[in-house]
Write a structure and sequence with these properties.
It contains 16 helices and four strands. By secondary structure, it is an all-alpha fold.
């Protein structure tokens, strides 16, 4: 008899309770999230798929099926308006092309909400609507996106695309979680699932072998962390155990020891013009890596380097500044200081992993309905029900 996973069992028999409850936490994530999730999902039932083929930028050197974006912090040179753009770190140029990024974020938001609603209700209308969006992005020849990021975060007069642009597809991570949630529902045909998995397999191969992907892996700051989060999620979807093991070792031997200081801070993020937002973002991404990759035999939340660095240390460092931002000892972010923090996923994942009621209480108190584009862009985890379900 074929062994069935707990996740498949949950979906087949309609059990919807995710166990976050224990003597210390006493917390039911499903019930807490239910109203918010269903409100979002019901609104998304009326939304039609929109992929990269819906818009095109004349500055792109790719095709209508290629994702294209432009570097956020690059502006026209006032001394040479027709020349190459110049960098202004932390200052977003509102005139840059963002339509494909916005479409991808929208896809992620819709996917996460619909899949979460399906888990909560077992109502196939949510899975059926999600399937339409998935097929538009990955299956349908007229609308699907090519599985590469050759033209992401381009800079006028400087580059037609950059490895640093791979961070734009961090929003596909929650899409993979949504696919997991409905893969045993029979809503997607076997053929469609194979095509979708093939798309992610091809993209995974591209970001792990192309020079852009290698550059992003070795970038050294939150970009390396987000590269790892994506690679882990894509490998998890297609069952690539070798790549999952690589990601675990990369986290242990490179990301954690090289990016975290002994006090739990991230020095490379603190050097930026948005030190608070980037510190939150990097911590969220690291906890997401641990949430994806941890197993009973290899719990990354518990992993500690020889010099005492671990994820709990990072949470202990940031927690007081999330709880009371006015205590932040560094410069304020050059933009969007007032909009942070929101419902940071690091607090939930860390709260569950370390059985810490304070983290979960703070997570519950923070805003889950953020709409500022900059905040949305840096919050790829929006539907934690998908992440806690095993």
């Amino acid at each position: 008899m074929k062994k069935i996973s707990l996740k498949a069992l949950v979906l087949l028999i309609g059990i919807t309770t995710i166990s976050c409850s224990n003597s210390k936490l006493a917390f039911n994530l499903n019930e807490f999230e239910r109203s918010r999730v269903l409100k979002n999902a019901d609104a998304y039932l009326n939304e039609s798929p929109e992929t990269v083929t819906a818009t095109f930028c004349e500055r792109s050197t790719g095709t209508h099926h290629d994702f294209y974006s432009e570097g956020d912090y690059w502006w026209p040179d006032e001394k040479n308006l027709e020349g190459p753009y110049i960098r202004k770190d932390g200052l977003t140029n509102p005139a840059n092309f963002t339509s494909h990024r916005e479409a991808l974020i929208r896809f992620s938001q819709i996917s996460g909400a619909l899949a979460s609603a399906y888990i909560l209700t077992n109502d196939k209308k949510y899975a059926e609507k999600l399937a339409l969006h998935l097929k538009a992005w990955f299956v349908n020849q007229d609308t699907k996106m090519n599985p590469n990021l050759l033209y992401a975060q381009a800079i006028k007069g400087v580059a037609t695309g950059r490895g640093i642009g791979i961070i734009d597809t961090v929003h596909l991570v929650e899409v993979t979680k949504a696919i997991h949630a409905i893969e045993n529902s029979s809503i997607l045909s076997k053929t469609d699932l194979e095509v979708i998995n093939s798309w992610f397999s091809n993209y995974l191969n591209w970001i792990t072998t192309h020079e852009y992907g290698i550059a992003e892996r070795d970038n050294g700051n939150n970009h390396s962390v987000c590269w790892t989060m994506q690679v882990a999620a894509f490998a998890d979807l297609i069952g690539d155990e070798k790549t999952l093991d690589f990601c675990r070792n990369f986290y242990k031997n490179t990301l954690l020891p090289n990016q975290m200081e002994k006090d739990g801070s991230f020095p490379l993020e603190l050097k930026r013009t948005k030190p608070y937002g980037y510190s939150l973002f990097n911590l969220d991404a690291m906890t997401s890596i641990c949430q994806i990759l941890s197993t009973k035999k290899d719990n990354l939340f518990a992993y500690t380097t020889n010099d005492g660095k671990n994820l709990e240390l990072g949470l202990k460092y940031m927690f007081p500044y999330i709880e009371n931002k006015s205590d932040w000892p560094f410069q304020h972010d050059v933009m969007y200081w007032d909009e942070w923090p929101v419902r940071q996923s690091s607090l939930l994942f860390g709260g569950i992993a370390y059985k810490n009621k304070k983290y979960i209480k703070l997570w519950k108190s923070l805003n889950p309905n953020f709409t500022t584009p900059e905040i949305v862009r840096n919050m790829p985890v929006r539907n934690p029900i998908l992440w806690v379900l095993k």
